[in-house]
Amino acid sequence: MRTSASGATASRPNHVRKVHYRCAASAHMHVMPAATDDHVMSDVAKLVRDPRIASHLQPAAVDLSAEREERADLTRRLESFERDYALGHITGPQLAKSTALVEAQIAKVDDRLAKAIRRNASSPIFNAADLGAAFLAAPIDVQRSVLASVMQVEIVPAARSGASWSTDRVRLHPLAPSAPQATPALV
């Protein structure tokens, strides 16, 4: 899933702009991010409070400021593409091509951040008395990394078109602390 926006454009400035997660492969389904994020974040916060899970998240110090700034720059570029499209400065195919290139770069940065964060002792989450609360207050890249280390999230199609958001659409698969894929390489 990836974020996508719909609504207001240059030709429809009075429409409300909505953001949602949609399937990156074929756009065959989408889900609203706020309720989904709240649900997933709550479950991850509960999960990281488990001492067995927390023991697998022991990091080593790394400076991530350059990666965070690179990701912020790439995100700003995506936003500028959308503005340029809305103002008619670029065409739909140009928007799609530019977006795909920058999203691929963001995915690489996110991967580097996730790997580094798993080893990052300076992250406030690992030094906090309440790991769940620290997780909820952490920067988004820290949250993504912790999520990837402890849980897999699956979004399933709605039972019927137009159905309201439901926790039934979000399947959470905790990664067992003893399973090889749940234990990130900590060096």
Explain what the structure shows.
This protein is mainly alpha-helical. Helix content is 48%, strand content 12%. The protein has helices at residues 33-48, 51-54, 65-86, 92-117, 124-127, 131-137, 140-150; strands at 2-6, 18-22, 30-31, 151-155, 170-174. A three-stranded antiparallel beta sheet has the order 1-2-3, with no helix packed on it. It has a two-stranded antiparallel ribbon with strand order 4-5. The two termini are 30 Å apart.
Question: What's the structural blueprint in terms of helices and strands?
Answer:
Blueprint: E1 2-6, E2 18-22, E3 30-31, H1 33-48, H2 51-54, H3 65-86, H4 92-117, H5 124-127, H6 131-137, H7 140-150, E4 151-155, E5 170-174
Antiparallel strand pairs: 1-2, 2-3, 4-5
Helix pairs in contact: 1-6, 1-7, 3-4, 4-7
Label this structure with key terms.
3-stranded antiparallel β-sheet, disordered C terminus, 12% strand, two-stranded antiparallel sheet, 187 residues, mainly alpha
Give unreliable regions as ranges. 178-187
Structural category is: mainly alpha
Mean pLDDT: 80
Largest sheet: 3 strands, antiparallel
Strand content: 5-15%
Count of DSSP-assigned helices: 7
- Using only CA atoms, what is the Rg? 18 Å
Number of domains: 1
Give the ordered list of helices and strands. Answer: EEEHHHHHHHEE
Helix content: 40-55%
- The order of strands across the largest sheet is 1-2-3
Number of strands: 5
Distance between the termini: 30 Å
CA-based shape: globular
